[in-house]
Amino acid sequence: MKIRYLFFIMLISVMALSCQKDDSVKEIPSSPLKIDSLSSLSMLSSPGNVLAAKGILKITVKDSTYTFDAEKDSIAFVNVYLENKKYFGITAINKAHTMSFGISSLGDAKTNLTSDVAGSQFLINSHNQSNIQYTLSKYSDSNKAGKINLSQFGQDSVLTKGSFFTFMATDAQHSLSFKVEGTFNLKIK
User: Fold this and answer.
1) Best label site of 17, 92, 106, 112, fewest CB within 10 Å?
2) Do 141 and 127 form a contact (C-beta atoms < 8 A)?
3) How far, in Å, CA of 174 to CA of 144, rounded?
């Protein structure tokens, strides 16, 4: 239940940020950015949710690869505090609002971090076929749920760069789990 609540919060965050992008609101401050760490940019440290201005998030499930492009879709790096625990993650929703993705990990984000996946969800609303919902397989224990690797975080114009893998199922109680892999290279300007 906590994981569903966490992803609901993350999805609401990215949808709110998505509306800003659709309304052509600038998500990047007009003053020049000098970022040595995330703590030096108040927009990043408070409230902790940052909409990527450029970059790609790719997700591969079974034999299909899905791509989110930050220049047209909404991809956000989010921080969530739930039940006295910190989570970080990446959420995305495409411009047509037919596809959304979220993945999270417990703790604080930083460069050269490999962390366990705490939750993940991938929703596809296809007009040609029935909707598909992939969620973190409930049979995966926390050490086997997957990993998020941040090779860069908050350096220069890089919001975050890295990769992940996790195991997701269409029906967590009866379905087989599929390995889901992805990469991300997101920039703030």
Assistant:
1) 112
2) no
3) 18
Q: Which amino acid does the sequence have at 18?
A: S
In a domain, 32, yes or no: no
Tokens 């990446």 sit on residue = 90
pLDDT digits (tens, 9 = 90+) for 115-136: 999 989 999 987 776 788 888 8
Cα–Cα distances in angstroms (integers) from residue 188 to residues 3, 50, 56, 117, in the given order: 28, 8, 12, 24
Cβ–Cβ under 8 Å, residues 21 and 74: yes
The arithmetic mean of pLDDT across residues 145-156, rounded, is: 92
Give the DSSP letter string of 100-159: EEEEEEES---TTEEEEEEEEEEEE--SSS--EEEEE-TTS-TTTSEEEEEEEEEETTEE
Number of folded domains that form the chain: 1
pLDDT at 80: 85
Question: Does residue 148 fall inside a structural domain?
Answer: yes
Nearest alpha carbon to residue 87 among 7, 163, 32: 7
Phi, psi of 58 (to 5 degrees): -115, 140
Condensed to tens digits (0 to 9), the pLDDT of residues 12-30 reads 454 444 444 544 433 433 3
Q: Is the overall model pTM greater than 0.90, yes or no?
A: no
Query: For residue 121, is it within any domain?
Result: yes
pLDDT level of residue 47 (50, 70, 90 thresholds): low
Q: Which residues contact 150 (CB under 8 A, 6 or more apart)?
A: 109, 110, 111, 112, 113, 114, 115, 160, 161, 162
Token match 């509306």: residue? Answer: 19
